[in-house]
Amino acid sequence: MRVAIAEDSVLLRKGLVLLLEEAGHEVVATAGDAEAFLRAVRDTTPDACVVDVRMPPTFTDEGLRAALLVRDQWPDVGVLVLSQWVEERYATELIAGRARGVGYLLKDRVADVAEFLDALNRVAEGGSALDPEVVAQLLARSRHPLGDLTPREREVLTLMAEGRSNAAIAAALVVGSGAVEKHINNIFMKLGLAPAERDHRRVLAVLRYLGTS
Amino acid sequence: MSLIRGLVSARTWLAFTNHLVGLALGIVSFVIVVTGFTVGLGTTPLALVGFPVIGITVRLSSAFARVERARFALFLGRELPHWPADPRRGYHWKIVPTMTMMQSRATWGEVGYAVLRLPASVLAATFTVLVWTVGVVGLTLPLYATELPGGGPSFNANRIPGGTALIALSSVAGLVLLLAAGPITRGLAAADLALARWLLSPPRDAQLQARVTQLEVSRERVVDAAEAERRRIERDLHDGAQQRLVALAMELGRAKAKFADDVDAAAALVDQAHTEAKAALVELRDLVRGVHPPVLTDRGLDAALSGLAARCTVPVTLHVDVPVRPRSAVEAVAYFTVAEALTNIAKHSRATRASVVVEGGPGPTGTLNIVISDDGIGGADPAGAGLAGLADRIAGLDGALSVESPPGGPTIISAVLPCG
Asked: What is the pTM of this model?
């Protein structure tokens, strides 16, 4: 996979490059600020990019804004946003509208290398990856009634919202894929969502449902 | 035009009513205070009777002053500034005034005012009523002059000579008087207010002095609160993240030593260090969020509070209506007010529901109003470290915090922050 990195901390940037290269990916560009990052995406058209929210010059949310731009202008480039803090509001901005191939994770998650690489893969393939903390906030803040869901269905919904495939959900809950399928059908029925065939589409339907008010 | 509008304006007629009400109150206060003091002074030789009678009279004149403040607020829309509270003023056994009380300018202002109210009101009310009635009588004279007994205006049964010219003159004079009646009524109300302000309110420098004292106290509290906050951060860093990093470095050091002969043990140590490092990250993140949440700067109160509400273990309904963002110091205090309240709700209240309402901001009202309520067991202590620190930060912005938390609940915490 060809990856671009936007991260202003040199230490972290080097770490990410090593981590990705050791996993067999190719880092095609690195940038320390949003402008250089956008130029790099235009020049190299990577499969995915990893973007830090806070970057120069204002150190507020330029990374997020750059990520939104990439999402809208280069729909085939997966965008994984990393942040020192996760906030539901940033997540809803990211998944609002056409939410294909976006991810939003706490920076800490990089420490769990396998999970991080899995999230990046999902985003590159057009799926999504949301931090468990964001999902918890989304569920708590949801304007839609979720009270009809059984505890198990809530667990499945949470994992789906994080962007996981059916197989991954089944593995995480230690149940068969048939059982997961049944739960998902129930969830879609109870929330009144149109059934969808592929994993990604289902995840996005759930995210949009939670993120919209 | 403005003269004619003055005739029917609400301000004029409120001032008019003000004079009549003032007269009625003045009669009562005069009788009570003059009688009270006469009886009280007359019986001073019998101290057991005299002092309490004087005490009760002083109390009644204070009560009367409160009524008068309300009267001016109601009819003229003006608040009279209060004297700063002085704990030495007061009563022994509720009815005998203390020495300080009897020597204080505020006390004698109130007593004097209770006595002077009657003459002042007699003048004001009589003059106002006179101006209006004579004006109306004079102006309308042509309408009924011929119907009067004797066929025209008379004085002491003697017909006033002058005929039509006099009647015309009287109606012109009546008109002038009526046009002047509005300004006169309002002018007398202003004079009335000035008298009340002179006797019931502290002089201007005393007001300033009181404000300076209040600001000094609040500044001290803000400095203390900031100092306490720095100590808390230092402690949290020291006990939390720093210890974890020490442990982490130690485990990595041991792992390094073990790699040569026991790879399995080294791997276990690295694994442990990995966990340790992640825990340190979580602690640092929470600490930073407690200092200043980045989302507050980037997206404002609504976004920051929605994250806060979502993280609270008690379900929170959140309503934020702040069309214009206040300056960042106000936003930060508003955020920490809600944060502290929600922390308390989660920790102590045993509530099942909580509600947060934030409204206002820069604009017509100029204040940001925050109300946090829950259905818990109540009993929150406003003097506890958290709420007291909060009150200090709010006082630093010249705002006000109120905590209502009767045993058994519910708890309602409200704050008003000026945004000017």
From this structure: 0.62
